[in-house]
Amino acid sequence: MPVCQEKRPKILVIGSINMDMVARIDHIPLPGETVLGQGYSFAPGGKGANAAVAAARLGGCVAFAGCVGDDSYGQALRKTLTDEGVDDRLLRTAQDAPTGYAPILVQAGGENSIIVFPGANRSIRPEDVPAMFREPVDAVMMQLEIPTEIVLLASREAEARGIPVILDAGPACSFPLEEMRGLSIVSPNETETMALTGLPVDSEAEARAAARALRERSHGADVVLKMGARGAYLLTKDFESMVPAFPVEAVDTTAAGDTFTAAMTVAYLRGEPLERAVRYGCAAGALATTRLGAQPSLPTAAEVEAFLRARE
Question: What is the layout of strands, in order, in the sheet containing 139-142?
């Protein structure tokens, strides 16, 4: 880990790192249809790297563990991490796979569709995992864009060391949540919740039922359901509540969920009650939707705090 100020929470992020190609279009093409785009750009992304950079901008002391290819995208993404103050010593370069790549189609109104080509993200090896835990951290953040085997193995390593695990349970897949160890918080969005539980999340009552199912599957972890413009549903052993969202004019929702989870984690590790940490996550996630791209949209701590002060 880099040298950290005493009060900065130390976070290990194990996850994916991609180069994103962000294309702005009026609507997603129908089968056989060609549409003219309004513009495109390249930007660093990947759910793991997004969370790492978001946490660093919000005041966390962050190390990132993952894998890139031996190519220009990999070199650029590594430089982005170090420029953001993220420790890249656990980012391995694979010789047999290209860096992950993700074309993102952003429609008018900000909704997006994403295709992920994992590339080197699938090259993280089980033997890499123990070395990720050589230095002490306050929490481990993970997502599901890397092999399931790695996520489960890392959770066992964390549990053995008494390190809490925060799982941003995306992208949507039938992940064996009950096999996770050391899980403190699980935070899926609506689509990911459906994939994990088979339950819809179209109302607060449905969110409550789905959250309880997730809490049971995850051996009692706190549950934070990300519900986009509606906010987030929080369920703990002693508390459950809907935490409202902050209305904004969305430009691009890419990385909003990653930002939410990173912000919530940083606030929680600083000692905030989870409900207040979720509210902080809602603010950071809302801000991320007001700018185009994944990591270019991630807010700083000063921006989130100013956003919250303006709404007190």
Answer: 87-94, 61-69, 10-14, 139-142, 165-167, 183-186, 222-226, 232-235, 240-243
State the Cα–Cα distance between residues 55 and 1, nearest whole angstrom. 14
Task: Please give the model's pTM, rounded to 2 decimal places.
Answer: 0.94
Looking at 95-168, list the stretches that DSSP marks H as alpha helix, in order from N- to C-terminal side.
148-160
| 6 — pLDDT class (breaks 50, 70, 90) | low
The catalytic position among 20, 128, 168, 258 is 258
- Per-residue buried b or exposed e for 102-137, using 16+ beta carbons within 10 Å of the residue's own CB: bebbbeeebebebebebbbbbbbeeebbeebbeeeb
The pLDDT tens digits for 31-56 are 999 999 999 999 999 999 999 999 99
List the one residue out of 277, 288, 231 whose CA is nearest residue 57. 288
Whether residue 171 is preceded by a cis peptide bond, meaning omega within 30 degrees of 0, is yes
96 a catalytic residue = no
